[in-house]
Amino acid sequence: MKKLSLRQQAQERISQDLYPAFLKLKEFLQEIYLDRARQEPGIHSIAGGNEYYSTALQFYTSTKLTSQEIHNLGSSEVERLHRELMKVASTSALEKNMTLEELLTKMRDSEDFYFSSREDVLEACIKMKDGNCVAQRNSRSEVGIFSEFPERY
């Protein structure tokens, strides 16, 4: 029996298994699924859909905000964070006249903005006493970020 190369084995599996499966899926979508699908996207297009969506929003966000209010809040937070990033950039060693896009690209691509070890992350958190990441020593580990733990820990 002739031994097939890995490429030949892959081509065989694709032609014998994958391609027929995709053809079967295409047939199902065209002949069964699309005829039975709703014409309008979203839950709002079915009876009681708006009420269902409002209830789901309240459940998952623990608020009584509308979807528009949640969207507006998210948009304003993105804008606030962008302003904060630009403020930090203007007071740091970064180039002063960078656009937000240039700043984000530099932060993503430069190794200067990444921690090199777990210890570096914890050390930075400990130094940020007035920030959101306040590390403390505790009995559960040598250095931890959280002051409270679930019961199972």
UniProtKB/TrEMBL annotation:
It comes from the Eukaryota. InterPro entries: DUF885. Pfam families: DUF885 (PF05960). This is Uncharacterized protein. It comes from Armadillidium nasatum.
